[in-house]
Amino acid sequence: MSINKNLITGSTAMLILKLLDGEDMYGYQMIDTLSKRSDDTFSLKAGTLYPLLHDLEEKNMVNSYEKSADNGRLRKYYTITKKGKGMLSEKEDEWKAYVRAINQVLRGGESYAIFC
Amino acid sequence: MQYSAKLNEFIETICEQIRWKKAHNTVSEEIRNHVIDQKNAFMDKGLDEETAMEKAIKEMGDPVLIGTELDRTHRPKMEWNIFLLTGIMIILGFGIRYIASFEPDTPFMLERSLMATLIGIACMIGAYFIDFTFIGRYPKSIFAGLTVLSILSILLSPVIRGKHLYVQFILLAFPTVMAGIIYNMRSKGYLGIILSGVFFIIPVLIGLRIPSMSVVALISLCFLILITMAIIKGWFNVNKFYGMLHVYIPTLAIVITGFIKLMFYSHKRERFLNIINPFKDPLGDGYISARMREMLAATKFMGRGDLGSNPYMIPTINTDYILTYLIHRLGWLSFIVVMGIISFFIIRSFKLCYKQKSILGKLVSMAVLVTFTMEVIFYTITNLGLPIMGSLTLPFISYSGMSTIVNMTLIGIMLSVFKSGDIVKDSLLLPNDE
To answer: Which one of B7, B18, B31, B37 would you mutate to disrupt binding with A, by most A Cβ within 10 Å of its Cβ?
Structure first.
C-alpha cells in the first residue's frame, strides 16, 4: 500500500525521533527499521533522511557521535536529546488529535461533537 | 573498483552544492557509509556487486537536491552573542576607567587603551579565521613560539613594581596551547600524562621568574582542569583512577611543600596573616587590604560610599583594584551589573563548549573559557578584600593593554571553535597510530 507523499514527509521527523527514542541508530539502520516496522509502507529515501537528521541536530533535537562498527568503519550514530523527546511527545499528541479528527469525519461526524 | 567511481561522482555532486567546504568531509563519509550498507543489503538479496551499487545510489535520490538541502543546514556559525558580549565588556571597561580617571594619580590612558583594543580586534579576527585546528596540528611549534616570546619579553620588558608585568599576560595564553599538547598525547598512556606535565613546567618556570605566583596558580589550575577532563574522556587510554593519581599526587606534593615553606619562612607567614587580618598591621603588609575593607565597609547599594576626606588611598586603582573602586564609587548595584554581564558571557560559552563533539574543540574552547573564568575569579576575590595574591586582570575592564590583546585573541580562538567545531573530526586530525 502506498500513502500520499505529503502525509509522510510531514511526519517523518516524528517517526525518526520515535525510532531514536528506542535506541541510538545510524542512518541506514533507521531506514531499514522504519521500512520493516511499517511493513514496507514507509520507504524513506536517504536523500530525505540526512538533510532532516542534520537539521534536527542543528536544532538540538538529536545528537550524534561516532562509533566504529564490526567491519572497522566509523559509523555516525544519532541519539535523541531531552529537547527532542519533548518535541516527540508534542508531535505525537498533534498526530493523535489529527487522526481522531480524520476518524470522526470518516465515521460521518456521528460522534460526541454534536453541539459544537 | 569500478563502482566506487560512480559513488565518488555521486558524493562529489552532493558536496558541490554545499558551499561550506569544511562540512564536506563529514557529509561525504556518512553518505558513503550509507550507500555501502545499502549495496551490501542488495548483494545479500542476490544482486551482483555492480548492479547492487547502481541500485543503492539510485535509492539515495537526486544528489543535487540532497546537496542543496544540506547546504541550508551546514553553514559556519558565528556566535554573535559571544561577540556582542565581548564588545559590551570592552565598552564597559572604557566607561569604568573613564570614571576612575577623575581620581588623583589615575590616568585614563585613552590612547593606549584604544591602541590595544584595535590590535586586539585584529588578533581576534585573525584567530577566528585561522582555524583552531591549527592548535591541534602544530602545538609544539606554537608552544615553542610562545616560550620564546615570553623569554624575550622577560629580557626586554621593563620591570614594573618589581615584576615583568607584561609577561604575566602572555602566560595566560599557555593553557590554550597546552590543550593542543594534551590533544597530541592521545593513547600515549601514563607517559602522555607525564609528558604533558613536563611541558607545563616551562610556563611555570617563566611565571616564577616574573615573579608572579598568581599567574602560576592561575595557569596551573587551568592545566589541572584540562588534563582531568582529558583523563575522564579516556583520551590517554589509561585507567582513569591511576591516571588521576599521576596528576594529583605531584600536585598535592607541590601544594604541601608550598604550604610548609610558607609556614616556615616567618616573614612570609606573617605577611600572609597580615593580609588576611589587615588591621594588625594596617600601615604595612595589611595596608591595601585594610584600605580596601574600609572602602567596602562604607559602600552603599547605589551611589558613592562615604569615607570622609581623601577616600582613595589605594594605588593602581585602574589596573588592580577597579572593582573595589567601582563598588565604592557607584555602589553594589554596579558590581552586580558588571558581574552579571561577565557571568552571562561565561555561562553562554560553557553551554557552547559542552556541545563540542571533537575532543580538540572541547579542550581548546574549555582552555580559553577556564582561563577567562579564573581571571575573573582571581580578580574578584582580591578586590573583595583578600589580596593574598596579585589581582592580575579583569578581562577588558581593568586597564592592561597586553591583557586586552591576549584575551581578545583567546576569545577569537574560542569563536573559531564554535564556528566549525560541529564538523571537526578527531579521526581526521591525528594520524592513526593503532
So the answer is: B37
Q: Are B225 and B175 in contact (CB under 8 A)?
A: no
pLDDT digits (tens, 9 = 90+) for B319-377: 899 999 999 999 999 999 999 999 999 999 999 998 888 889 999 999 999 999 999 99
What DSSP line would sit under B35-94, residue for residue?
A: HHHHHHHHHHTT--HHHHHHHHHHHH--HHHHHHHHHHH------HHHHHHHHHHHHHHH
Residue B316 lies in a domain: yes
In a domain, B180, yes or no: yes
| CB spacing of B357 vs A74 below 8 angstroms | no
pLDDT in tens, B391-417: 899 999 999 999 999 999 999 999 999
CB contact under 8 A, B29 and A46: no
Say if residue B231 is in the same domain as residue B279: yes
CATH number of A5-106: 1.10.10.10
How far away is chain A from the Cα of B72, in angstroms, using its nearest Cα?
A: 9
Q: Check: CB of residue A61 under 8 Å from CB of residue A84.
A: yes
Report helix, strand and coil shares of chain A as percent, to nearest 5: 60, 15, 30
Asked if the interface predicted TM-score (ipTM) of this complex is over 0.90, the answer is no
**Chain A residues touching B425 at Cβ < 8 A:** 66
Which residues form the domain of B61?
A: 3-73
Sole residue written with cell 564554535: B418
Does this model's pTM top 0.95? My answer is no
> Which residues in B have their CB inside 8 Å of a CB on A?
26-27, 29-31, 33-38, 41, 59-63, 65-66, 69-70, 72-74, 357, 425, 427
**Total residues belonging to chain B:** 434
Q: Hey, are the CB atoms on A45 and B59 less than 8 Å from each other?
A: yes
State residue B432's pLDDT score. 47
Residues of chain A contacting residue B29, judged by C-beta atoms under 8 Å apart: 74, 76
What pLDDT, in 10s, does the model give residues B81-90? 999 999 999 9
| Ranges of residues in chain B whose predicted pLDDT is under 50 | 1-2, 432-434
Torsion over CA of B377, B380, B383 and B387, rounded to 10 degrees? -10
Helix residue spans in B278-400 (DSSP H): 287-297, 317-320, 322-330, 332-355, 359-383
Measured CB to CB, residues of chain A less than 8 Å from chain B are 26-28, 32, 45-48, 50-51, 54-55, 58, 64-66, 73-76
> Same domain, yes or no, for B121 and B137?
yes
Chain A neighbors of B74, CB-CB under 8 A: 54
Query: Number of structural domains, chain B?
Result: 2
For the record, the C-alpha cell of B341 comes out as 554581564
Indicate the residue of A45, A50, A65 with minimum beta-carbon distance to B30.
A50
Q: How far is A71 from chain B (nearest CA, A)?
A: 11
